[in-house]
Amino acid sequence: MNLLLINASPRRERSLSRQLATAFVSQWLALRPHDAVWERDVGINHPPLLTEAWIAACFTPEDQRTAAQSDVLAYSDAAIDELARSDIVVIATPRYNYGMPAALKAWFDQVIRINRTFSFDRTETTWPLSPLLSGKKLVLLSASGEFAFRPGGLRERWEHLEPHVRTCARYLGVSANDVHHVAIEYQEFGDERHRASLQGAISAAKALASALATAQSPHPRSQQENSNAS
């Protein structure tokens, strides 16, 4: 199986979301050492923002694009290819201003693309997805300075990270029931509540990795690729 790890923290060191990602991936590989892991670090290497030239290239049929238009879409093409090959998408991110960092939003904008990952069908209430994007699972690993974002919590109405990711997940080939979230809270407080949240989240990330790793069989696409390779 193939894991795609998206790290969105701008910090190389002392990043709690990266710490969660390390715990999850390490536990996964301990159980499935032959699986592949790709990392796209959008927190350090920011995806390009969408521009007028990008939009024009996106809506130009592939066989009519200029070399310059193909270059504009190069990042998007590479990121979509990674996504298409993945079975598990792991997004490790801080929560900034109650939502996702700009760099992570830019990655979503690059991979959710007309005529690559979805198409328009004005007779339907939802847009058809690419057949390459199906059957995936998504793991969201987050860290925040505040707390109580869960349903019923003090800041439930201020929580825009998980709902946004869940909304976009469909366009990554992930169904609503296949999104899993592990969160660290209280970072700005630095007290026992934060320490308990950190340790609890690391344990939960490892437990989730174990549960998903032992439950998974290769995606049908991966089985076909292996069959072709053999």
UniProtKB/TrEMBL annotation:
<dbReference type="InterPro" id="IPR050104">
    <property type="entry name" value="FMN-dep_NADH:Q_OxRdtase_AzoR1"/>
</dbReference>
<dbReference type="Pfam" id="PF02525">
    <property type="entry name" value="Flavodoxin_2"/>
</dbReference>
<comment type="similarity">
    <text>Belongs to the azoreductase type 1 family.</text>
</comment>
<dbReference type="GO" id="GO:0016652">
    <property type="term" value="F:oxidoreductase activity, acting on NAD(P)H as acceptor"/>
</dbReference>
<dbReference type="InterPro" id="IPR029039">
    <property type="entry name" value="Flavoprotein-like_sf"/>
</dbReference>
<protein>
    <recommendedName>
        <fullName>FMN dependent NADH:quinone oxidoreductase</fullName>
        <ecNumber>1.6.5.-</ecNumber>
        <ecNumber>1.7.1.17</ecNumber>
    </recommendedName>
</protein>
<dbReference type="InterPro" id="IPR003680">
    <property type="entry name" value="Flavodoxin_fold"/>
</dbReference>
<comment type="subunit">
    <text>Homodimer.</text>
</comment>
<keyword id="KW-0560">Oxidoreductase</keyword>
<feature type="binding site">
    <location>
        <begin position="15"/>
        <end position="17"/>
    </location>
    <ligand>
        <name>FMN</name>
    </ligand>
</feature>
<keyword id="KW-0288">FMN</keyword>
<comment type="function">
    <text>Also exhibits azoreductase activity. Catalyzes the reductive cleavage of the azo bond in aromatic azo compounds to the corresponding amines.</text>
</comment>
<dbReference type="GO" id="GO:0009055">
    <property type="term" value="F:electron transfer activity"/>
</dbReference>
<feature type="binding site">
    <location>
        <position position="9"/>
    </location>
    <ligand>
        <name>FMN</name>
    </ligand>
</feature>
<dbReference type="GO" id="GO:0016655">
    <property type="term" value="F:oxidoreductase activity, acting on NAD(P)H, quinone or similar compound as acceptor"/>
</dbReference>
<keyword id="KW-0285">Flavoprotein</keyword>
<feature type="domain" description="Flavodoxin-like fold">
    <location>
        <begin position="1"/>
        <end position="206"/>
    </location>
</feature>
<comment type="function">
    <text>Quinone reductase that provides resistance to thiol-specific stress caused by electrophilic quinones.</text>
</comment>
<keyword id="KW-0520">NAD</keyword>
<dbReference type="GO" id="GO:0010181">
    <property type="term" value="F:FMN binding"/>
</dbReference>
<dbReference type="InterPro" id="IPR023048">
    <property type="entry name" value="NADH:quinone_OxRdtase_FMN_depd"/>
</dbReference>
